[in-house]
Amino acid sequence: MKPTVYLETTVIGYLAMRVSGILRVAANQQTTRDWWDNHRRRFDLFVSRFVVDECSDGDPVAAEERLAYLEGIPLLQMSDDVNSLAESLLLAVPLPEKAAIDALHISVAAVNGVQYLLTWNCKHIANPSLRPGIERVCRDMDYEPPVICTPQELLEIHDAI
After folding, report:
1. How far, in Å, CA of 139 to CA of 46, rounded?
2. Which long-range contacts (CB under 8 A, 24 or more apart) does 93-99 make?
3. Residue 161 has what pLDDT?
4. pTM for this prediction
5. Strand order in the sheet with 44-46
6. What top-level class would CATH report for the domain 4-160?
């Protein structure tokens, strides 16, 4: 059985966007493309309706490019438990109200038992100072939290195994 990965919207955004002139962003884009092209088949991938909705926003041409990456990737189930966990994350971590969608990404992955949450959102999701609180809240509500990581970290984790 393959490890499971929830693809948060920023990963899809990095795949679809034009190469950035900002060196760090361009490097992250290249890492994401490398993971997508050479390593994603080692994992079972999932997204949520939140990812689809976010990828659908904005310029129609850009949205079409983002949505093309989602073709064939299963949607995770939504439930009241997802909303309840997201509310707890917002209150207890604490995450700011503007990070409500980020809490939902974490929650849908945790409630559905996904092993990894792949993201480039290092402000509210893959933030080392927030991860312990996120993990505590998930476990307090009887969910195993996903390992929150960037594509670079996921490559390092699985290359070490």
Report:
1. 21
2. 93/130, 93/133, 93/134, 93/137, 94/133, 95/124, 95/130, 96/124, 99/123, 99/124
3. 52
4. 0.95
5. 44-46, 4-7, 116-118, 147-149
6. alpha beta
